[in-house]
Amino acid sequence: MKSNPVSKSKVAQARAPAAVHLQTIGPEEAGQRLDNYLLRWAKGVPKSHVYRIIRSGEVRVNKKRAEPTTRLVEGDVVRVPPVRIAEQAQMASVNAAQTKSRAHAYLDKMPVLFEDEALLIVDKPSGLAVHGGSGIALGVIETLRIARPELKFLELVHRLDRDTSGVLLLAKKRSALVEMHRQIRENQTDKRYYLLAHGEIKQGAQVMQLKYPLHKYLLANGERRVRVDPEGLPSHTALRVNKVMRREDVAITLAEAQLKTGRTHQIRVHLQKLGHAILGDDKYGFEDQDKQIKSKRLYLHAHLAGFTHPRTGEKMRIESPIPAEFTTMMKTFEQVNSTQE
Questions:
Q1: How many Å apart are CA 258 and CA 247, to the nearest integer?
Q2: CA–CA distance from 218 to each of 215, 222, 224, 227 (Å)?
Q3: Three-state DSSP state, 260
Q4: Which positions are annotated as active-site residues?
Q5: Is the entire prediction scored with pTM above 0.90?
Q6: Residue 225 φ then ψ, to 5°
Q7: What is the DSSP string of 197-249?
Q8: Residues 131-175 pLDDT 10s
Q9: Three-state SS string across 96-117, please?
Q10: pLDDT (tens digit, 9 = 90+) per residue, 24-53?
Q11: Of all helices (H) and strands (E), which one includes residue 122?
């Protein structure tokens, strides 16, 4: 029996490998690490697979092998293997509706405080990570990229801890991101946080200057921690007491912390060292006292960001109101004094 040439042709076509994708890096992608570029371009694909195809040499930059940390330059040509595209399309079709629905639900809890052609500034809720990671499918950046697909470029200017709420800056242009990073690096920005701390922080008329050196380390399970250590990096927090409140024999303090440096967990560890850990801090706090006053979140809120607009040069001051959880907690205590003008 003669074979059907049409059938053979269809089979061959079906088995033919998908075409390799060649991506040319434009000005908005320039400066990104290769791994971050691929993770964004290939939404929904497991990170482990992205790193595997980079390390195996299936991904090439200008026809050469590259490391995940390789910084891309405008005009670079990135080769992406066809299996990558197939998996991307398959996973996208399965998860797109569910992921989009979840992203819009998160977006509803994240008011926009300011937006123009260069910046997007949101009020991040407590409990939402700024980016996805181990065990976290969606963070702020993934949520906004899904909900705002028209934005060709969107990157975090800085980070907030998952349980910290408040003002979070994102850049919509590569040039804006570079300029904002310069301002942060040269201490030209103003970041202020409201916090509720255990106990009565006694302070005179002067602002307290907390200057404890900090050292990052990992627990046995790989979780990141920070401690005060003479060999650590210098860090500086300015602390101003606003109110001290008392309920029977329990006191809490409302204070404002201004970051002079931006170390990991800086405010949380400085308050712990001071002996007045922040309410609801599951890493550096007082678990028994949190249970006693029924603390259900980390009471740390980024309420103000001051900076120079990266395009116009205008002095900006973006503020977020104190969260309702703070007000509710403070109402259960009686104010005993105030240093607030």
A1: 27
A2: 10, 5, 5, 11
A3: coil
A4: 161
A5: no
A6: -140, 165
A7: EES-----SSPEEE---EEEEE-TTS-EEEEE-TTSB---EEEEEEEEEEETT
A8: 876 666 788 998 999 889 899 899 999 999 999 999 999 999 999
A9: HHHHHHHHHHHHHCCCEEEECC
A10: 887 777 888 898 888 877 766 777 888 888
A11: strand 119-124
Sole residue written with tokens 């595997």: 52
Structural tokens at position 213: 């050196």
Residues forming a β-bridge with 316? 307
> What tokens appear for 133 in the block?
């990671």
At residue 46, φ and ψ (nearest 5 deg) are: -55, 140
C-alpha to C-alpha distance for 106 and 114, rounded to whole angstroms: 18
pLDDT per residue as tens digits for the range 258-317? 999 999 999 999 999 999 999 999 999 999 999 989 888 999 999 999 999 999 999 999
Side chain identity at residue 114, one-letter code? F
DSSP string over 245-257: EEETTEEEEEEEE
Question: What are the structure tokens assigned to 120, written together?
Answer: 């997007």
Tokens 């991101």 sit on residue: 177
319 near 304, Cβ under 8 Å?
Answer: yes
3-class DSSP assignment, residue 335: strand
SS3 of residue 277 by DSSP: coil
Identify the residue whose tokens are 């801090």.
281
